[in-house]
Design brief:
It is found in: Nucleus. InterPro entries: WD40/YVTN_repeat-like_dom_sf (IPR015943), WD40_PAC1 (IPR020472), WD40_repeat_CS (IPR019775), WD40_repeat_dom_sf (IPR036322), WD40_rpt (IPR001680). It comes from Xenopsylla cheopis (Oriental rat flea). This is Transcription initiation factor TFIID subunit 5. It holds the Pfam family WD40. By secondary structure, the protein is mainly beta. It has two domains: 291 residues, YVTN repeat-like/Quinoprotein amine dehydrogenase (Methylamine Dehydrogenase, Chain H), CATH 2.130.10; 43 residues, no CATH class. It has four helices and 30 strands. The chain has a five-stranded mixed β-sheet, with no helix packed on it. It has a four-stranded antiparallel β-sheet with strand order 2-3-4-7, with no helix packed on it.
Length: 388
């Protein structure tokens, strides 16, 4: 039997962030995710994850973004020429919705109405989305895979339908390039990071931002939602990491320790820790309860652009422009941190070096652009081959 997770008395109420009601399709997807989780591999120092590496060839340095969706079925790539391409990673091809005339003949009460809405004749392995007027810097799939967000140098964020393969909304508000965009774990909300030194919280059904998180002294380069959707972490060129409350808009944590621009953020599965990767070639791990720096993971020789935790929270993966992927023993780090005195009057010793490093995997000459753990704890990585 798996251990029952204790609820934190300080955790926010489940209804603190208002969310739309779950659709029937969402409920079916959650059931599917639970079935997949039951087949999940247990990871640890003796059972490292299998890795599936996707290498993008003939890119000529034109690839600027890569993302894999939550259920590992879709791969999105953003290009410097403003084009977005979506590939299916499963045998199922990418279908488009039928036209309005054919949709009117469908029985809306049928159990498989969503399947009947799609046109099998339009099946393709890859789809292209065109609309931006500048390089694509980030992509983010909605949890149900029906929508895609893209952030661009043209100062806009676009919402794309992955059923009609068209742009549905253009969000304007930032006045400089948008570096990052992230969907909330529950969908509906998303957060953006920009060169204008702000991060902004949006809802998909509203054109204007709900919150503007201002306070950074330079570009906000990366953002990440907390697993409970109540908080947003931001990483900046001012070398700080900040944690913001989505409901009040207030800054609740300020974490300093990096020496260069912060490019990647990732919350642990339990939500207690935050990992940040930077151009100083280090991964820093923070305890969010007090904002303490718990560990400095030093082993990479290049900027760290991707971080990911395994689904069970035992493994931390980091991908760098030094063409290596590293696996860290996060469960050991947590155990040692928990054994120390973590009261407010005592800042624990920061663990440094590579004592938690389990394995280093080197690519032939492919910087790591994106990392993703599947529901069964298979580690998926995306890299761009650079000919020497």
């Amino acid at each position: 039997f798996s251990k029952k997770t204790k609820s934190d008395p300080n955790a926010p109420a489940l209804d603190r962030m208002p969310l739309p009601d779950l659709k029937d399709a969402d409920k079916l997807e959650k059931i599917k995710a639970l079935r997949e989780a039951s087949k999940r591999a247990n990871l640890g120092p003796d059972t490292l994850p299998s890795i599936c590496f996707y290498t993008l060839l003939n890119s000529l340095n034109h690839i600027t973004a890569a993302e894999i969706c939550e259920d590992s079925s879709l791969l999105g790539i953003g290009f410097a020429d403003s084009v977005i391409k979506i590939w299916s990673l499963t045998p199922s091809k990418l279908r488009a919705m039928k036209n309005a005339e054919l949709l009117s003949d469908i029985d809306r009460e049928a159990d498989d109405v969503l399947v009947r809405m799609m046109d099998d004749r339009s099946s393709e392995v890859q789809r292209t989305l065109v609309g931006h007027a500048g390089p694509i810097y980030k992509l983010s799939f909605s949890p149900d895979r029906s929508l895609l967000l893209s952030a661009s140098e043209d100062t806009t964020v676009r919402l794309w339908s992955l059923q009609t393969w068209t742009c549905v909304v253009v969000y304007r508000g930032h006045c400089f390039p948008v570096w990052d965009v992230r969907f909330s774990p529950h969908g509906y909300y998303f957060v953006t990071a920009s060169h204008d030194k702000t991060a902004r919280l949006w809802a998909t059904d509203q054109h204007s931002p709900l919150r503007i998180f201002a306070g950074h002294l330079a570009d906000v380069d990366c953002v990440q939602f907390h697993p409970n959707s109540n908080y947003v972490a931001t990483g900046s060129s001012d070398r700080t990491v900040r944690l913001w409350d989505c409901v009040t808009g207030n800054k609740v944590r300020l974490m300093t320790g990096h020496k260069c621009t912060i490019y990647s953020l990732c919350f642990s599965t339990c939500g207690r820790y935050l990992a940040s990767g930077s151009a100083d070639n280090r991964v820093l791990v923070w305890d969010l309860s007090h904002g303490y720096l718990v560990a400095s993971l030093v082993s990479h020789k290049g900027p760290i652009h991707s971080l990911v935790f395994s689904r069970d929270g035992t493994i931390l993966g980091s991908g760098s422009l030094d063409c290596t992927l590293k696996i860290w023993d996060f469960s050991k780090l947590c155990e040692e941190a928990a054994n120390e005195d973590m009261n407010v009057s005592h800042n624990p010793d920061v663990k440094t070096g590579d004592q938690y490093l389990l394995r280093t995997y080197s690519t032939k000459n492919s910087p790591i652009l994106s990392l993703h753990f599947s529901r069964r704890n298979l580690l998926m990585a995306v890299g761009m081959y650079e000919a020497s």
